[in-house]
Automatic annotation (TrEMBL):
Gene3D superfamilies: 3.40.50.2300. Keywords: Signal. It is found in: Cell envelope. The keyword Signal applies. Belongs to the bacterial solute-binding protein 2 family. The lineage of its organism: Bacteria, Bacillati, Actinomycetota, Actinomycetes, Micrococcales. It comes from Pedococcus aerophilus. It comes from the Bacteria. InterPro entries: Peripla_BP_I (IPR028082), SBP_2_dom (IPR025997). This is Substrate-binding domain-containing protein. The keyword Protein biosynthesis does not apply. Transmembrane segments: none annotated.
Amino acid sequence: MFRTRTRTASRPLKTVAALGIVGLFAVGCTSNEPDTENAAASGPAKAASDNDAPGDKVVIGFSGPAADHGWLGAINSAAQAEAKKYSDVEFKVAEGTNDASLQISQIETFINDKVDAIVLLPTDGAALTEVATKAMNAGIQVVNVDREFSSPFAARTTVLGDNYGMGVSAGTYACKLVKDKSLTNPVIAEIAGIDALPLTQDRSKGFADALKACGQNVDNRVSAQFTPESGEKEASNLLQAAKKIDIIWNHDDDQGIGVMQAFENANRNEFAFIGGAGSSNAMQWIKEGKMEATVIYPPTQAADGVRLARLLVQQKGLSDLVQVEVPRRIVLNAPVVNKDNVEKYLPLGFKS
């Protein structure tokens, strides 16, 4: 997947390269000739390269969120597990927090410790921009994860999930269900996350845009709080308001635990249920036939950030690109998981 650069280069300080978007498939780059026989057991295929061989020592500081949500916990654990794979990586982990002031202090400590790189999922991108820029100016490679800084000078590269793409994937799959089931005037419902958040707005817009492309629209919509409790409450309200539903998309598999409970309480199962994020619960429900599909929001983003931070410090690049530098911006794919490919994605499922 990666290859070593043949020329040397000093660490960039405030140089801003042209922004490019590279879609990667869940974890890393895929091989041109995947091992289809073992794909289901091993998860998405990954190409091997000499970049995995031990190189110069790299000290990486990691600051992530408090693990108060299944996906956030998976972000932290995946980053630490990835770092352990490399004998040339020394990984310094700050305590997970949702306090921007505390996270700023953590980054200040990493700067004072003179780490080589920092992988940072900020509790607030704008609030952490100044200290991240300070780290970059100190010659530290900063990898921004999931929540973007407000300045391009604050990070060498940014790894993102695709919230709009999640909505598009869910809506496109809903359109397929309408066609495959020959549904006439289907009733389509949406259980969103926190409406005030841009990520929720992006997911809803993507869903609406994809439905519009096949002549459909959202007939009933409620918003929850990304928690099981709120999911159960809002799903109950939805079911009371809509006596017939053909398709439901729920933005988040953590709140999906409550959503599923509401379905059971109401004894309603006439609809195709699509989830979001890719929890272990959702994948098990898919296997059991209780759920139609879920859309991945990769919990590997920080793990990918760790790999990229190591490459940046060791002055290596991506072998599947003609350009030998690590890209400035990477947006991960939002694939749909259903009964046909659930075994392939099961290793990426996180505990809610």
